[in-house]
Hints:
heterodimer, A: alpha+beta, B: alpha/beta, 9-stranded mixed beta sheet, 4 helices, 19% helix
Amino acid sequence: MKATVIVRPKEGILDPQGEAVRSALDQLGFPVAEARVGRVIELSFDSREDARAQLERMCEQLLANPLIESYEIELDGA
Amino acid sequence: MGPRPKVAVLVFPGSNDERDAAWALGSLGAEPVMVWHGDDELPDVQAVVLPGGFSYGDYLRCGAIARFAPAMAAVRRFADDGGLVLGICNGFQILCEAGLLPGVLRPNASLRFECRDVEVAVERDDLPFTGRCELGQRLTIPVKCGEGAWYGDVDERQVVLRYADGNPTGALDGVAGVCNEAGNVMGLMPHPEHAVDPLLGSGDGALILASLVDAA
C-alpha cells in the first residue's frame, strides 16, 4: 500500500517560506501573486484494513501540526 | 544555604546549548546533571531544563520528533507532578510540540536567522522562573533562532515575557515566553544562559535562571 500525505500551511497563516519563493520568482521574471510552501510525505507499508484511520492519527500526532497546518491523505491500493 | 539543587539538562542529538546551560546553572548555585534523550527516567532532580539547539536536525518541524524521545515521557510525568520545567529556544519548541506549553513556533517573519541582543519585558513576576524579576522590568537577552515566531491562542495570564523593543521574530503579540496554566512549565525563545555575565554583554539572563535555582 502507498499513501501520499500533503501538508499545507493553513489559510491565513503567514508563510515566510512561500513569501521567499514568491520574491525569488519575481526576481527571475515570473511575477506571481502568492506562493505557499507545504510538504509531501510518501509512505509505503503493508496492506492493512484501518490504513486511513492510522494515517489520520499519524497526521494528527506527527506529520502535521493542526494548529497551523492542514493535511490531505491520498491512499493508493485501498 | 541548603545543598545545591540538582537541575537536569536534557541532551538531544543536535542540542548545542546544553553546556552553556549547565555552566550558567552551575555558576548560579545549582548542580547540573546531563540527561541523555534516550533515558527512560530522570535522575533525582529538582528542575529540568531543555536547552537550545537543533534536535533531530529540526526535521519535519522544530521539536516535532524530539517530543517522542523516551526522556520526554519522563519530563511529562515530572511536569504533571508539578516539577519545574524550563525550555529555551529549541527546548521551547519541543515543549510546544509536546503540548506541555500552548502554541507553536513558526519561521521568523523576517525570513532571517535572528541572532542579537533583544529587550524583553517581564509580564509575570510571580512564577518560579521570574522570582528575581520585577513586573515590567526590561531584560536584555539574546535571541538566536530561525523559527522563533510564537503563534497560538493563550490566556494573557500565560504570557511571561514580551519583546519590548521591536519584534525580532514576528511572534503573535510579541510573545517571547509563555507558561502553562499551572505555572510550573515555561518556555522562552531568548537565551538566558548566554546572558549571565556582563562581560559578555548582559547579565540579565541570570535573573531567570537564578529564579529557577531559587525555586528548585
